[in-house]
Amino acid sequence: MSSLLVSALRDVVGAAHVLVDADVRATYETDWLGQTHGTTPAVVRPGSAQEVAAVLGVCAAAGVAVVPQGGNTGLVGGSVPRGGAVLLSMQRCSSLSTVDTLSMQVTAGAGVTIEHLQQHARAAGLDFAVDWGARATATVGGAVNTNAGGSRVVRFGTMRAQVMGLQAVFADGSIVTQLEGLPKETAGPHLPSLLVGSEGTLAVVTAARLRLVPWFRATAAALVACDSLVDAVSLLPQLRQLPNLDAVELLMPEALAIACKFLDVRPPVAPSSAGAFVMVDCAAHHDPTDELASLLANERGVLAVGAQRDLLYRIRDHVTIAIGALGVPLKLDVAVPVQHLDRLVRRVTAAVPGDARLVIFGHLAEGNLHVNVLGAGEAAPLLRERVLEAAIELGGTISAEHGIGVAKADWLERLKGPAAYAALRAIKSALDPTNLLNPGVLYPDLPTRHDPQPRFT
Ligand code: MLT
Ligand code: ZN
């Protein structure tokens, strides 16, 4: 990388926050599961929106694209640097305001981890509702940019439902700060909502004003063993009647077996004894064990409270890492209307080559499946095509919570249709006319005026 560009970046963020050493860069250049690899000439770690704006100015002048990154727990290659782009690590934007118990809100920097945010909220008797296995590393900025979901969407919605306001820096260096957190406002389109799920292509999110929820300390879970996926889906109306329903997760037998083996624990129910497992969680201010016990009166399964519930969550939280320990999977995050889940799984299963290993789990209430195929080999591109095609044909989506990234960018227009895609592309072009921010993500056909290599000499 040009020494002029490095020195200009150092002037902005300080020498300690421009990382050019190859070993240090390496941890930012590959995603956590080893699915996507890239290269960056420098990792820049700004500490404020003003520093982000100045970094964007330097990169724009040098003709170098910018890829924002949070905890690097993405699953679609959306935050891995490509073609020599500068990697903008947001981890130093990690301030946290005092919890506002009057409005039940908090302001968090983009680099705050989900786990730290939850701990901060709980210290004030509240909780942050979006939760998933990578909580210790995943960040607020990444969650905003992918509209993250996780296990509690059935009760509290996705990240979009938690974002009351944002601070963000646009490609031209202008900073928008809307962190008041007004619960009601009808003054034109809501800019923060537009940025949620935009995967770092419209602006760099530096902070978020977030809704908090009550902290339900009394919990009880159950692992229900169903004969088939159809039976699992047919449990939903009954589950939705539970007054304190907090999560409805799906574990197909292979996923349960792999996670238990990885953790070296005995499965709570033998994986081979069922066709699908539903993990149900209830959380309340008063012990919800009885509501779940009455569910199990008619179903096969185990009730899990205290340490047993912790174990169920440990198993659920480790499925991804357990699959990753067996190899780099073809991983697809699709969702269909729940009544079509079984048809989707049948189509996926039929497409998987005989020598590959299919591991499915996900979020049952949202019809959201994480399809993982180990050992797909050369069949992977066709398999990807079949799975995404099936999801669209069944009225679903090719991404429910992981984003589009680069992995599925070729499919966005097909999913959205030409009119909607053109509208989204027009917004991108208006806000970032030179395609400085995260080129290649979401809009693969959009040219970038920023070269892989800096023009400074
Ligand atoms: C999960 O639900 O555990 C995450 O979305 C991660 C994954 O799909 O692997
Ligand atoms: Zn998930």
Tertiary shape: globular
| Strand composition percent | 15-25%
Q: Which small-molecule species are bound to the chains here?
A: D-malate, zinc ion
So what's the CATH class of the domain at 105-214? Alpha Beta
Helix content: 25-40%
How far apart the termini lie comes to 9 Å
Strand order of the largest sheet: 14-11-13-12-16-17-15
Based on helices, strands and strand pairing, what is the structural class? alpha+beta
Rg, Å, rounded: 22 Å
CATH topology call of the domain at 105-214: Uridine Diphospho-n-acetylenolpyruvylglucosamine Reductase, domain 3
Number of strands: 17
* Largest sheet data: 7 strands, antiparallel
Number of helices: 17
Q: How would you describe this structure to a colleague?
A:
By secondary structure, this protein is an alpha+beta fold. Among the domains are: 105-214, Uridine Diphospho-n-acetylenolpyruvylglucosamine Reductase, domain 3, CATH 3.30.465; 218-319, Alpha-Beta Plaits, CATH 3.30.70.2190; 327-393, Alpha-Beta Plaits (2-Layer Sandwich). The chain contains 17 helices and 17 strands. The N and C termini lie close together (9 Å). Residues 452-457 have low confidence and may be disordered. Bound molecules: D-malate (MLT) and zinc ion.
